[in-house]
Amino acid sequence: MHPLQGHWDTLDKLLRQSLGDVRSQLPANEANAVGDYIGHNEFGLAFELLLELLQEHAVALHATTREKLDEAAVLMAL
């Protein structure tokens, strides 16, 4: 196992959960694009696109979703 596998697994989980929390408030094709980035371990791109879409579509975040995104940002050193 790669030394960073646990780190990547945590990022994958946080981003997938965050996307799941807001998926119904985003156009399907845009939500799917975020999911594709996550699926290809492009966590930085997924994170940036998700934040852009949240702003573009004025999605209000629940505190738990914000915490997941905050944790993902810390793990990615953003």
In a nutshell, what does this entry contain?
The chain is an all-alpha fold.
What this model shows, in words?
By secondary structure, the protein is mostly helical. The protein has one domain (5-75). The protein is built from four helices and no strands. Helix 1 (5-22) packs antiparallel against helix 4. The model has no long low-confidence stretch (mean pLDDT 96).
The helicity comes to over 70%
Radius of gyration over alpha carbons?
A: 12 Å
Number of strands: 0
Low-confidence stretches: none
- Note the gap between the termini: 25 Å
Bulk shape: globular
Helical stretch count? Answer: 4
Strand content: under 5%
Element-by-element helix/strand order:
HHHH
What are the salient characteristics of this protein?
mainly alpha; 78 residues
Task: Please render the helix and strand layout as text.
Layout: H1 5-22, H2 28-39, H3 43-56, H4 63-75
